[in-house]
């Protein structure tokens, strides 16, 4: 059954009535791919789950993954539930990274959950030059560096000591 014809009582959408960015067409907008713990909609609407989480929990996706290909001045793609073979030519080159979980803010509990799309980062490259970041985040196996992945921002951010080097 097509997605459009199903009913999703726990799927809540927010309507944008004003914005500090210009949406270029009637189909432009914002689609939250974050986790419930960081969702403004989940905080305001009881039992609401973000769009991607709802699709994954209800088994609508072949795999609980999504992919974005954002290229300057080129075709861009967004794929739900699969790997876009027009973007990824060799699937064996795909690297899976575990998402880092966080304890709830302001608590000392051992219970953790996902808050942001964050992965551990052992190195990064700028213009072909490889760098090893200075570990700043405490983890179960000592300190490590982490990278927050967010396509909803206009810049790339990182720990001061790494960015400045």
Automatic annotation (TrEMBL):
A Gene Ontology BP annotation from the UniProt entry: proteolysis
Domain Peptidase A1 positions: 1-165
Domain of life: Eukaryota
Cited Pfam families: Asp
InterPro entries linked: Aspartic_peptidase_A1, Pepsin-like_dom, PEPTIDASE_A1, Peptidase_aspartic_dom_sf
Gene Ontology terms for molecular function: aspartic-type endopeptidase activity
Database matches in PANTHER family: AGR407CP, BETA-SITE APP-CLEAVING ENZYME, ISOFORM A-RELATED
Similarity comment: family membership: Belongs to the peptidase A1 family.
Name of the protein described by the UniProt record: Aspartic peptidase domain-containing protein
């Amino acid at each position: 059954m097509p997605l459009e014809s199903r009913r999703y009582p726990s799927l809540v959408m927010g309507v944008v009535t004003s914005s500090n960015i210009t949406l270029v067409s009637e189909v432009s907008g914002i689609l939250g791919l974050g986790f419930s713990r960081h969702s403004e909609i989940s905080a305001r609407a009881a039992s609401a789950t973000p769009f991607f989480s709802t699709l994954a929990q209800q088994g609508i996706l072949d795999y609980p993954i999504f992919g974005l290909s954002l290229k300057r001045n080129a075709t861009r793609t967004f794929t739900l539930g699969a790997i876009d073979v027009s973007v990824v030519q060799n699937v064996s080159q795909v690297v899976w990274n575990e998402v880092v979980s966080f304890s709830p803010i302001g608590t000392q509990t051992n219970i953790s959950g996902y808050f942001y799309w964050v992965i551990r980062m052992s190195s990064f490259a700028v213009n072909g030059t490889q760098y090893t970041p200075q570990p700043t985040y405490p983890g179960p196996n000592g300190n490590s560096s982490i990278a927050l992945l967010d396509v909803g921002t206009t810049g790339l951010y990182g720990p001061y000591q790494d960015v400045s080097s």
